[in-house]
Amino acid sequence: MEGLSRSFGETRALNAATLRVRPSEIHSLVGENGSGKSTLIKILSGVLRPDSGTLVWEGEARQLGSPRSAQGMGIATVFQETLIVPEMTVRDNIYLGTDGLFRYGHRKGDEIAGARQALGDLGLDGFDLDRPMWTLSLAERQLTTVARAIIRPWRLLVLDEATSALDAQQRDRLFDYLRLARSQGRSVLFTSHRMDEVLGLADRITVLRQGATVATMGAGEASRRGILGHMSGREAHADPAVVAETGPRRGAAGQQSPQRTVLRVAELTLRAASKPISVEVRAGEILGLAGLEGQGQVGFVECLCGLRRPVDGQVLALGDNGETHIVRSYRGANRLGIRYVPRDRRYEGLFGPLSVFDNFAITLWGDLNWLGVLRRQQARKRFADFSESSRLVSASPSRAISILSGGNQQKVLLGRWIAMRPRVLVLNDPLRGVDHNTKEELYGLFRRLAADGVAIIFLSTEIAELLTLTDQIAVFHEGSLVAMLPTEMSSDTDVVAAMFGGDRHDGSADD
Amino acid sequence: MTSVVSDRARPSVLSAPAVRQILRRNTYAAVPLAMLIVLFIVNAVVQPQFLAQHNWATSMSVLCPTVLTAMAMTLPVLSGNGGIDLSVGPLAGFMTVLISTILVPAGITSPVTVIPVVIVFGLLSGAINGVLVAYVRLPAIIATLGMYLFYDGLGTQVLPQAGGSVPVWLVKLNGSVGPIPAVWIVFAVIALVWTLVSRGSYMRNLLAVGGDERTSYTAGVNVARLRLVTYSMGGLLACLGGLMLTGLIQGGDGTVGPPYTISAITAVALGGISLAGGRGGLLGGALGGGVLFLIQELLTDAHVSVYQVSVVDGIILIGALALNGTVEYLRRRSSASKR
Amino acid sequence: MTDPSPIAPADGLPEPGPAARQPARSTSEAVTRFVAANFTDALPYILVPVLFILSVIFIPGYFSKLSIISLLILASLLGLASLGQTVTIIAGGIDLSIPAVIGLSDIIVTQLYYKHWSLPVIFLLIAVAAIVIGTISAVSSVLLHVHSLITSFGMSLVVSGVALEWSNGAVNGAVPGWLTSSVSAIGHTGPIPIPAIIFVWAVASVLAVAFLRRTRVGRETYALGANPVAARLGLVRSTWTLVVAFCISALCAAMVGVFFAGYSGIPDPTVGEPYFFLTITAVLIGGTSLLGGRGGYQRTVMGALIVAELTTLLVGVGFSASFQELALGILVIALTSTYGRELKVAAKI
């Protein structure tokens, strides 16, 4: 693809971006949110058409009118969002789109064999193909979408954040498959926010910034620092991993006189077979939650904020005078000062058609009203305060929230809860898909909140992030808490080892 | 599964997986089928003449337009994204006007000419809906609402009350051929055609688009074209219903159409079909129409006043949808993936 | 995760925020951009005077106090009936029971006044009935996890059955004189030679716009329609908000039924039937989207005026009711094609 440009109305998503992928190559595309990655991928997969520029495929200039034509050419795409039809079976989901309007593309026997093969390649052996998709876990669904891509004869496989739901084992299996495909002469283009994946897997790397290609390099010349520098356009000084090694750790700075407990988890049992969990969270403490996908940390978070009833045990909020209240419901938890920021902002957080201000203030109206009429002045003040402390960049609060970048949207959603003066702030992977600079600003915000006495529970899928930000890391495995690691004294490998359920050092740690 | 020991494949073994697949695809129809059977028995008990032959043929011919319009509504609903076709009623009503006041006076009376005209008109009007929904991308409820108003206005403009003449064969089609109501022949033909269609990939594509259109699109399904075809087939079924309706009322009438839209929605809900799309099938629409008809029969037998029928209809509708909705909700709840 | 809803869930939000936003290169480009972005928004506001001018041109004697007031009465009735519909649509639902409630209210007023019940009691009874009906539509929608289109539709069958049963055979009815005057083109409100219904509509409009913009329930209505999942998590009182929306709708419909009774004076349970689709049409033509979470009552006011003007224009030019309906159908499609189009599937990814 050369000199590709694509605009969205007034905004230019891609500005003469260029990408070259060679045969037998695994190529990584990196860039922050808003850099144009998704747009480039959508063009490549046939979903969008560029305003200008050319796509050259195997020596010929081509036009892609639809996903179907891209597939016809041999470009298979796995999108960032796990796209499945929940009601249909695994086999139907894999072979979807391979038919004509009325005629099947493959015979039933071939479909079954092909699906088995594809899933087997990805590590899902002996899978029941007639299960409806909604019974599958998120990781299994994601792998099914990969299977859908690979059953067609492909020359270029495009993976957009396709590992986001996979645990380390599944990811490695996928990478093995990719390397095998490479040795067969096929090519892969993938995007990832995880630097270790990029450095570990790619042969060549292209960096996008603000819609333009700013660098292309071979894996040999690439370094973490260098890539981050290109992505942000300035010296990467706050690379999480770098800070984790040399920067100030939470423990050192945050160590004051022991604070009182604000949240107590008493003998909480998440699943029938898991061990009871007991944890005490103090004011001003940042507790991290880690674990492979589906190991219970999300269920734990939901119990904390009242969205889920545990099988056994209780969550208790402790008041200023020592009185205890049991968390029984979502609203009850909120009344106790426990605020929850959900993971999926598109489905669980954003009010798309509404303005930035409306999105921010929706939780405040319960308090800021006089006989039902809104106290807008006060709400506006809180918005201004929050904008300042989080360095929110927004043209005007009355504009639609859809024009903000992903990072800024996330800030608004965080602000919704922070402006309610939480005692305990429960965050479910809040910085997923957020660009680097915004992450830094928000780390600062979280630290300030903790310094003010807010207890923060921070679930994250990025270990480096947990190592930078938290006082302790609670690691989950099979629905139980298997380790409580003091952040100051732990490393990447310690966390990963715990995630696998014990003290095994099986060397499959990240980078 | 099946062992390939002998070359002489036993037919029963071969057909078993196929039968199982049909059963699995149609599990949604279990509840409406059960309701149909129960209501049938109740009706027969309350009103013994229900099963008498001449009544039977009449009942069937009254039932026919209801079922056909219900089936016409089913396909757009299945296609998802708020799919619906409000115009089925007035379209059927307009058919009566078209046949009795335009075709017959123009000398077009034989089945060989009338039926193709009806088919073509049905496909075209359905296609208009399809283009508006799939390509102009109007919300289906608005596009078909517009067409509803169009056909209702046109029909009542041309024929504000009953009138016109109808070909004899059409009236005969609402009678009996020997002991069998002729209407069953119509149903049999449609069932045959549909079986052929559903053996292909159309249903899989339709349910996928209705289930999640973004997934279908990125997987390579031509979503717009599928919807266009779907609405066209819906229009065809509605016009066939209009054809039978013409024979039933033995003439034309621009005002008879609208109630069929309402009954079609009720029938779809009663038929176990998800209103959000992606779940159900044509059989459900037919069964729902049958259930609705039997309910109305029962109410007439019980000498319930016309107005009370309306009340009961409303309660039944809510009840049917409650059942439909709770079943879906429970299934969704149990599907929350492991955390 | 999708709702079991026949009307598309409002999550068709394109992934936002490409980095660079190009500033306009000149004032003329800025103006063009502004007009293009806002044209479809402004269309309903433009159509109202345009249609009026067309009517004046094509209908002799149109520019008279009497015909303008008749137009405003028509618009007021439709506007009031559509008030509640606007709120329910913004909340992500739709109310199909409006015509039935109009009919029931008409019956109650004419019958009970004829039997010499006192007016305050009659109005109280009507209000209570409306609140019950609205609450059932809303609550059953939440409890049964079924879209309010269906539950309100079911309620409409029940209510119209009741109304028909009640009025069965009744031909006598009576209404107070001032009520008749309030909807008559030659009616007066005190010394002012304008029928009361127009004032009622004006006041109701102001209250409706204020309600939607400035009250907690109003904002929560938008949130509920925009994203019901996020609304629940955002501490929006979902059930209460929907109940309020449907009660407002039923109360407005009841009010219109009372006015209709003033119009004709005889019990007619079917008087609301044309409003089955007209209220939705007024809301849509005004530019409020069926998707929920957007729009506002000021738009429906325009929509009601447009529908009233169109009806008057078509009648004035000599078109029959049937032809009007036909024309309305085409118009709904044409207008929505300009500003009501949904996103391409590709754009939703």
Mean pLDDT of chain B: 83
Work out the radius of gyration of chain C. Answer: 21 Å
Stretches of chain C where pLDDT falls below 50 for ≥5 residues? 1-24
* Global geometry of chain C: globular
Query: What is the CATH class of chain C?
Result: Mainly Alpha
SS element count, helices of chain B: 14
**Strand runs of chain C, count:** 1
Topology (SSEs and partners):
The complex is a heterotrimer of chains A (511), B (339) and C (349).
Chain A: E1 2-8, E2 11-17, E3 26-30, H1 37-44, E4 52-57, E5 60-62, H2 67-73, E6 75-78, H3 90-95, H4 108-121, H5 138-150, E7 156-160, H6 168-183, E8 187-191, H7 195-201, E9 204-209, E10 212-218, H8 224-232, H9 240-246, H10 250-254, E11 261-269, E12 277-282, E13 286-291, H11 297-304, E14 312-318, E15 324-326, H12 330-335, E16 338-341, H13 345-348, H14 356-361, E17 369-370, E18 373-374, H15 376-390, H16 406-418, E19 424-428, H17 436-451, E20 455-459, H18 463-469, E21 472-477, E22 480-486, H19 492-499
Parallel strand pairs in A: 3-8, 3-9, 6-7, 7-8, 13-20, 13-21, 16-19, 19-20
Antiparallel strand pairs in A: 1-2, 1-4, 4-5, 9-10, 11-12, 11-14, 14-15, 17-18, 21-22
Chain B: H1 11-25, H2 30-46, H3 53-78, H4 88-103, H5 111-135, H6 140-158, H7 168-172, E1 176-177, E2 180-181, H8 183-198, H9 202-211, H10 213-219, H11 223-249, H12 258-270, H13 282-301, H14 306-333
Antiparallel strand pairs in B: 1-2
Chain C: E1 20-21, H1 27-58, H2 65-90, H3 98-114, H4 119-143, H5 148-166, H6 177-182, H7 196-214, H8 216-226, H9 228-233, H10 238-264, H11 275-286, H12 297-317, H13 321-339
Helix pairs in contact in C: 1-12, 2-7, 2-8, 2-10, 2-11, 2-12, 3-4, 3-5, 3-10, 4-5, 4-10, 7-8, 8-10, 11-12, 12-13
